[in-house]
Every structure is written in C-alpha cells, then in structure tokens.
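Annotated sample (chain length 429).
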Amino acid sequence: MSQTFYDIIILFFAYSFLAWLAETSVAAIKSKDFRNRGFASGPFCFIYGFTGVLLTVFLQELREDAFFLFLGSAAVATAIEWFTGKALEGMNQKRWWDYSGKKWNFDGYICLQYSVLWGIAGFLAVKYGNGFLLALYHLLPAMVEKAVVWGLTAVGLLDLAGTLMSVYHIEEKLPRVIRWNRRLQKWTIRFAANLSGRIENRIKKAYPSIAREEADAGEKAGEKCSITQLFWLFLIGAFVGDAVETLFCRITVGVWMSRSSLVWGHFSVVWGLAIALVTALLYRSKDKQEFHIFWIGTLLGGAYEYICSVFTELVFGKVFWDYSGMPFNLGGRINLLYCFFWGIAAVVWMKILYPKAIALIHMILKKTGRVLTLLLAVFIAVDVCVSILALVRYDSRGNGEEAVYKWEQIMDQYFDDGKMQQIYPNAMN
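Output written by the structure step:
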C-alpha cells in the first residue's frame, strides 16, 4: 500500500498526537498529576510522528512478515530514540530522559523493555494503524483533506520554531512567533487538564533529569565536533570505506570492483555519512569500554544500512546491494554478520582511527585554513548532484524513456549505460 504526500503528513501528525496523549497520560498516572510530555507547546510528540512515518516508508515491504516487522520496528525505533537523546543532549548539554535505573539499559537512553514495546507498537502501526487512520482521513472531502494537512503543517512549524527559541532563550528574535507559541501553549494546557508552566519549566517537570543537571550548568560543556571537522570526517570515511569495500571484493570475489557512490572519485557516501554520524554521536563515549561502542555500532549500523538500502531503491529505482544469499539476512538489505562488522568498525574508528583522523584534520586546517575545505565541499556537492542526475537518468533510460531535456541529453552523452555499469556494477532494477 503506497501513501501520497498528504497521507504521510497526516500520519506524522496523527502519531505525534496519539503519542502525546499516551505519554502525557502515563506520566499523569505515575505522578498523580497531569503532565505534558511533549517537547513542543502543542499536543504533539514530533519524534513519534517522525518514527511512525519512517517505519511506514521503510518497513512497508515487511507488512506480511510479522516477526521481521516487529524486529525491524524495534531496531529502527530504538536507534531513533538513542540518536534523538544524544542529539538533544548535544543541543543544550542536558539529558531529556534517563533509563539508567532500568534493567538492560544502554547508555541511559535505551533499554530492552522499551525496545520490545517499540517493536510491538511499530508492528501494530504499520500492519493496522496506517490503514485505519488513513481510512478516517479519507472520509473528508478532497479540499478539506488538503486544508487540514497544510493547516497542521503551519501549526507544527510555528510551534517547533517557538519552542526552540524558548529553549535557547532567543525569544526577542521573533516575538510574534513566541506570542503565537504561547497562545498555543495556553490552549494545550486547557486541553491537557490545566497543565501549568512555560515550556522550559514544563520540560523540567516532565523530565526530572534536566532539573537535576541545572546545578551543573556552569561546568565545562565538553568537546564538540565542528561542522568543518565533520565534513572532513565524512570525506575521510567515504574514501576509506570505498577502499575497504574494494579490497574486500578483491579478496572474497577475486575481482576489482568499483564501490564508489559518486561518478567522480572514490567515495562511498554510505560510509562517509556513517563515520560522520557515529563520531557526532559517540565522541563523548570514546573513552568507554569497547563492548559499549560495539553494540551501539551494531544496532545503529544495521538500522542505518537498512534505511539506506530502502532509500536508494525508492529514489533511484536500483538495488545497490543484496544479501539474500547470506544467512540471517533481513529482506536482503542487511545481515547479522555485516551488522557485527558495523560494530567492529565503530570500535576501530573511535578507539584507533578517530584520534589520528582528528590530528590529521587539525594539521590540514592549520596549513590550508578553510580554502581547501571550501573547494572540496563545492566539489563534493557538485559530484553528488551530478551522480543523482546520472542515476535518475540511468533508471529512466532503463525503462525506455527518451531524453527530452538538455540535462538528460548531457547525462546520456557522458554517463551512458556502459559508464554507469562500470561505476555501479552491482546496481540492479
């Protein structure tokens, strides 16, 4: 069952609202006081809406396989929960939730019992929830459907903007947005049985770990990775990843095979993004034990590879890797052995290669300033754009579509089927 743009947006807000109801109600029961568990001012938990949409788009092919749908939902939702917790902590140096007191927790942000719960919830949402919610939505007249979607989008964007400004204490920048945000907050408070307090106080009350850490606000914020460093880490990871995969194919298959994601240069975007992401998320944990980093790398790596596989197939109409012939695979997109490889790679990177890479980046920046970084960033951006156009045209050409526009003719001239098969030998329809 495919969804339109409007279907996806309505599912996003539906799951955001339903999750807000569930979270707020559970918190109220536990504390004997009605507490709003949403991050925003309105009755929304946007991270749940995002997760619901992600599961809908990327796990749709598992609808008929209950076990793997449950497993995939648990893995993806757990990865999102961990990523969100680390990202929010990095945003203002505070923990928004803490499972340290629960059994089988990991890093205080995820734990086994909630992973199982996410798996069940994801299974129910993809298998039954989407159809039910969309059936209700499509009872509306067509014009009303679109009006509802655009209205909710406007409310959500303004709500999120006002909340972020409140968190960062920059209310004076856009006072109208803040005033609107506060009116929405007051409406939500009435709707939520007179929930009191402004956004910051409400968040502290709902998440006691934030209040506990207020006393430590004056402490050192800690090391951060700049955008420039992350770009260089992406570049290094993309190059090293391509080299490792090329060598691996030579050893296991006996042939030299291109593993690049781009039409110019030897760069694996999947590896580059993985290195940048794992560094941004784990650099504060780099001094922890190896098993900690290994299991996080295994979980996040598997979820990341699965999402990349579905994304590239949906966007470019090509399958760039297929593990169907390997044991313990999931839809041919990931397999247990390679998930362990992601875990090993995370340990090797954070414990051995990351310090050397940072030293190298500092040396390069010291000698070249930002000039080389800017030139390489422009090159990579152009390379990515041209690669996307070449892949789109490669797919449409394979479907028998003639070149109509100038850019299609250029792609046909410089990146014909022979050239594309050479660059992407594993790409299949």
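Annotation: Residues 170-174, 191-200, 214-223 have pLDDT under 50 and may be disordered.
Annotation: The two ends are 20 Å apart (CA to CA).
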